[in-house]
Amino acid sequence: MAATQFDLVADFLGLTEELRQRTKWPKRLITVTVPIRLDDGSTKVFFGHRVQHHLTRGPVKGGLRYHPNVDLGEVAALAMWMNWKCALMDLPFGGGKGGITCDPRTMSMGELERLTRRYTMEMIPFIGEDIDIMAPDMGTNEQTMAWMTDTYSTHAGRLIPGIVTGKPLALQGSAGRTQATGHGVAFLACRALNKLGIKLTDATAIVQGFGNVGSHTVYGLANSGVKVTGVSDVSGAIWNPRGIDTRELRDHVAARGSIAGFTEADPIDPAELLTQPCDILAPAATDMVIHKDNAGQLQCKILAEGANGPTTPEADEIINARGDIFVIPDILCNAGGVTVSYFEWVQNLQRFQWTEREVLTKLETMLENAFSRVLAFAERNKLSHRMAAQSLAVKTVAEVKAQRGLFP
User: Fold this and answer.
1) Is 294 known to sit in a ligand binding site?
2) 167 marked as part of a ligand binding site
3) Tens digit of pLDDT for each residue in 376-401?
4) How far is CA 321 from CA 196, 291, 297, 315, in A?
5) Annotated binding-site residue? 61
6) Which of 76, 113, 227, 240 is 20 to 30 A from 53 via CA?
7) Nearest to residue 302, comparing CAs of 331, 277, 275, 279?
8) In this predicted model, what pLDDT tens digit does every residue of 115-135 receive, in sequence order?
9) Which residue ranges in the chain fall short of pLDDT 50?
10) Which domains occur in the chain, in start order?
């Protein structure tokens, strides 16, 4: 998907073959073995990956995920998308992504700590606060980042908080980082409603996923007056056309661990939830959930992509042909996380903390600027929003590569 999208953008921009090749391929693809001792005394070897797509515009930035399906190809695609995301948001970063092939749900805290520390040690030659800065992703959290900070800092002999972002506040994390991605999705979805002339209090939303991104998307939309009618997570999906009390849902999930058993809404097949009528559909979980078989059945006015790569190229063609869905592409819609990660990194370098209000205000300003640039570029060049966003991003990276030239 990532390579296909890039080729379409490169054709539109008319990149030379040299720039096309230099811009497309990642700088480094790193795979390491991560042996650890399990709680039962046995030893198991895991495989860890890290892809650094480009360091042309600055150190690479991107998450670290723990998931059974992690492989080098997935990590490389996510690093490429992160590169375009940073360029679109005008952040001084290239794109990076990392992952370990494991199932964190079946591992103890001790095993996860040993896994994280060993992976960090294996990565030390390739990371640094001016080389590669990791962050939480699927299956990882601020505790993971705390272990990485400690491992790297112990090796260096002093605290280096800028080695990762998404840390606990006590370790010089940033206020607003936890809710940043979901806050950004909700903010941009509301901006799209404004563009379409739909009142926030008249709008409805369906959010796929109730993890960190999805839950804060739900809270952000509800706090803006949007009625949330459907939510799903790994346990299933719920639907209530009269609206879901998001505070009750939050309390239920805190007590039960999932949305399963929530009695204030009806169970519904997760696939069917995506095609229910709504103003905002926010896929905020996994990739490729909007595909050629369901794109024609969508009944939303706005597709707010909280996840990375939720819409396949085949689905894109169908949605573009329909012309009745306002797409907020992933590299713009979920850019809140990396933007506030940038703020955290800057605070760490300055040894100066900002308030949550300062962080979220700066975030909304940067998202608004990128949103306006994408819409203007799309209108001027008669492009889809996804094509416009990716064209602006790839153009930025390609221009810097051309300016820096090719070292002999």
Assistant:
1) no
2) no
3) 999 999 999 999 999 999 999 999 99
4) 19, 14, 13, 10
5) yes
6) 113
7) 279
8) 999 999 999 999 999 999 999
9) none
10) 23-171 (3.40.50.10860), 180-333 (3.40.50.720)
